[in-house]
Design brief:
The chain has 299 residues and is an alpha+beta fold. It contains nine helices and four strands. The protein is elongated, with a radius of gyration of 29 Å.
C-alpha cells in the first residue's frame, strides 16, 4: 500500500468518526465499559491464581499469639503446643523474624512499613499436623490456649480460593462474551450510518474502478480507532484504580494476620493489560466494521 493511499484511508476513517460524533462516543463508551469489566474479572482471576500458588507453599496451620504477651507467657503457649499429641512438629517465629519477612515482602515498596517496628507483630508458631484431616479439632484446641489470638489454616484458604476462582472465570467469561457482542453491534451500527450517508460516493468510487478493499479500509480504520480509544480510556481507569487499590489493600493486609496474601503490583501487569486491551479493542472494532459492510456495501 502506498503512503499516500494509507494517509487517505486513515484521514477518511478519522473524518467518519467526527461526522458521527454521538454514535462514535456511544461506541467508545461501550468498548470502555466492556474492557473495564473484563479487566476487573481478569485482575480478580490473576490475583486469585497468584495467591493460590503462594498459599500452597504455606504451612498447614499457624498459631498467632496476642502481640502483648511477654516471653514467659509465650513460653507457656509453646509448652501447650509441644504437649499436643496431634502436632507432629512446630517452629516458632519471633517478632523480629516476622518483621524481617514483612520487609522482604515489601522490599519493592519499603515506604509501606515506615513508622512501624516489630512491636506491632505477634509471635507465631508454624504447625505441621500428624493427620491433616484433624485440623478442625486441633484448631479448636489451640484457640482455647490462654494467650492465643488466632489460628489460621492457609491450606483450607487455598481450597476456598480455588473454588471461588473457578466460578469467577465462568461468570467473567459469560459477561465478557456478552459485552463483546454488544460492542460489536454498536460499532457496526455506528459505521452503518457512515456507509448509508456515503452510499452515492461509494457507488461512484466503485464505478470509476476503486477496489473493494480501497472502499472498505476507511471503515475498518474507523472501527479500529474507536476500539483503540475505548481501550486506552479503559486502561487509564484500570491502571489508576488498581494501583490505588493495590497500595491500600496491601497496607491493610500487612497489619493483619492475612499478611501472606497480597495483590500483584500494578507495575508488573500494566504492560500486559494495555497490550491485551489494545488487541481486544482493535479486534472488536475491526469485526464491527466488517459485519456492517457485509450487509450494506454491495462491493
Amino acid at each position: 500500500m502506498k503512503i499516500r493511499t494509507a494517509k487517505y484511508i486513515i484521514r477518511d476513517g478519522i473524518v467518519n468518526i467526527y461526522k458521527n460524533k454521538l454514535m462514535s462516543l456511544a461506541s467508545i463508551s461501550t468498548v470502555t465499559a466492556s474492557l473495564l469489566l473484563f479487566g476487573v474479572f481478569l485482575l480478580i482471576a490473576v490475583n486469585l491464581d497468584y495467591n493460590t500458588r503462594a498459599l500452597e507453599q504455606l504451612p498447614q496451620m499457624q498459631v498467632y499469639c496476642d502481640y502483648e504477651l511477654d516471653d514467659f507467657q509465650v513460653k507457656q503457649v509453646e509448652e501447650a503446643i509441644k504437649g499436643n499429641g496431634r502436632i507432629a512438629e512446630y517452629t516458632m517465629v519471633t517478632k523480629k523474624e516476622a518483621f524481617e519477612k514483612l520487609k522482604e515482602l515489601f522490599e519493592d515498596d519499603p515506604s509501606t512499613l515506615e513508622g512501624y517496628d516489630e512491636s506491632f507483630l505477634p509471635v507465631s508458631f508454624i504447625i505441621k499436623l500428624v493427620d491433616a484431616t484433624e485440623s478442625n479439632e486441633v484448631k479448636a484446641e489451640l484457640e482455647s490456649i490462654n494467650g492465643v489470638d488466632s489460628v489460621e489454616c492457609p491450606q483450607k484458604t487455598v481450597d476456598i480460593i480455588s473454588r471461588f476462582g473457578y466460578w469467577v472465570k465462568i461468570v467473567s467469561g459469560f459477561l465478557i462474551a456478552l459485552l463483546v457482542v454488544i460492542s460489536v453491534f454498536i460499532i457496526s451500527n455506528t459505521i452503518k450510518l457512515t456507509v448509508f450517508a456515503r452510499r452515492k460516493e461509494i457507488s461512484i468510487m466503485k464505478y470509476i474502478g476503486a477496489t473493494d478493499w480501497f472502499i472498505r479500509w476507511p471503515f475498518v480504520v474507523e472501527g479500529v480507532i474507536i476500539g483503540l480509544v475505548g481501550a486506552l480510556i479503559a486502561f487509564a481507569l484500570t491502571s489508576y484504580g488498581y494501583g490505588a487499590l493495590e497500595v491500600k489493600f496491601n497496607e491493610e493486609l500487612a497489619r493483619s494476620s492475612l499478611g501472606f496474601i497480597k495483590l500483584i503490583k500494578a507495575s508488573q501487569i500494566n504492560f500486559a493489560i494495555v497490550v491485551l486491551y489494545a488487541f481486544l479493542g482493535g479486534t472488536v472494532g475491526a469485526i464491527g466494521s466488517v459485519i456492517s459492510m457485509r450487509k450494506y456495501l454491495k462491493v
